[in-house]
Automatic annotation (TrEMBL):
<keyword id="KW-0029">Amino-acid transport</keyword>
<keyword id="KW-0067">ATP-binding</keyword>
<dbReference type="InterPro" id="IPR030679">
    <property type="entry name" value="ABC_ATPase_HisP-typ"/>
</dbReference>
<dbReference type="InterPro" id="IPR050086">
    <property type="entry name" value="MetN_ABC_transporter-like"/>
</dbReference>
<dbReference type="InterPro" id="IPR003439">
    <property type="entry name" value="ABC_transporter-like_ATP-bd"/>
</dbReference>
<keyword id="KW-0547">Nucleotide-binding</keyword>
<dbReference type="Pfam" id="PF00005">
    <property type="entry name" value="ABC_tran"/>
</dbReference>
<dbReference type="GO" id="GO:0016787">
    <property type="term" value="F:hydrolase activity"/>
</dbReference>
<dbReference type="InterPro" id="IPR027417">
    <property type="entry name" value="P-loop_NTPase"/>
</dbReference>
<feature type="domain" description="ABC transporter">
    <location>
        <begin position="18"/>
        <end position="252"/>
    </location>
</feature>
<keyword id="KW-0472">Membrane</keyword>
<dbReference type="InterPro" id="IPR017871">
    <property type="entry name" value="ABC_transporter-like_CS"/>
</dbReference>
<comment type="similarity">
    <text>Belongs to the ABC transporter superfamily.</text>
</comment>
<keyword id="KW-1003">Cell membrane</keyword>
<keyword id="KW-0378">Hydrolase</keyword>
<dbReference type="GO" id="GO:0005524">
    <property type="term" value="F:ATP binding"/>
</dbReference>
<keyword id="KW-0813">Transport</keyword>
């Protein structure tokens, strides 16, 4: 498990994979991200929790520049994320993203969905892309579905394909924005199990989720957001057993009583 300040330490002062400095974002009058400062180290699993409207998803999407920011900076592996252009596309390829909805191409096979990015963006040869895709589909447990169309798969299977598709770009960090919220309850665990497996393999992950079990099991650090701010951050056991802020205590209290 990582320490509370993962980028610190004289012998291991490595560049964080993700670094946000004084990041602000408004939607009109609504200040959805307020002076966000955050560092995530290589191999760290950070779970972002908080009530609806706290800014969690906006934070996640800003890291991939799917949401623009008004001020501040976001760095991926030491490079500032530009606002647009080829450098943005290049850096964005280092940041895999898995959404609530699966966003698979409906008329392409599962295999084609996974190979499209490596072929089009990374100019990988088709045979190499197919080999990579098959190994990733095997890793997430759906290799036997490779020739089917997305609609022929369950929601849980489609989300695992979406994870394989993101991994096919060989990202430095994976972002998950409520990856199980659109799934039926019986399908949630198969996706979470895949994510736990990735965490154990050392994938750097930032996960916005309501799944407390996953946070306890796989997170190195829990970040609690409310009203566009990072209110509290701690190791999972500390956060769940002894939250420091009134907002976090209230949030956890409501979870326990429902």
């Amino acid at each position: 498990m990582s320490t509370d300040s993962p980028a610190s330490g004289a012998g291991s002062a490595t560049t964080p994979i993700v670094k946000l400095t004084d990041v602000n974002k408004h939607y009109g009058q609504l200040h959805v991200l307020q002076n966000i400062n955050l560092e995530v180290s290589k191999g760290e699993v950070v779970v972002v929790l908080g009530p609806s409207g706290s800014g969690k998803s906006t934070l996640c999407r800003a890291i991939n520049r799917l949401e623009t920011i008004d001020s501040g900076s976001i760095e991926i592996d030491g490079q500032v994320l530009p606002e647009e252009g080829k450098m943005l596309a290049k850096l964005r390829a280092d940041v895999g993203m898995v959404f609530q909805s699966f966003n698979l191409f409906a008329h392409k096979s599962i295999l084609e969905n996974v190979t499209l990015g490596p072929i089009k963006v990374k100019n990988m040869k088709k045979a190499e892309a197919n080999k990579l895709a098959l190994s990733l589909l095997e890793r997430v447990g759906v290799a036997n579905q490779k020739d089917k169309l997305p609609a022929q798969l369950s929601g849980g299977q489609q989300q695992r394909v979406a994870i394989a598709r993101a991994l096919a770009m060989r990202p430095k960090v994976m972002l998950f924005d409520e990856p199980t919220s659109a799934l039926d309850p019986e399908m949630i665990n198969e996706v979470l199990d895949t994510m736990v497996g990735l965490a154990k393999e050392g994938m750097t992950m930032i996960v916005v989720t309501h799944e407390m079990g996953f946070a306890r099991k796989a997170a190195d650090r829990v970040i609690f957001m409310a009203d566009g701010q990072i209110v509290e951050q701690a190791a999972p056991e500390q956060f769940f057993t002894n939250p420091q802020s009134v907002r976090a205590k209230d949030f956890l209290g409501k979870l326990i009583t429902h």
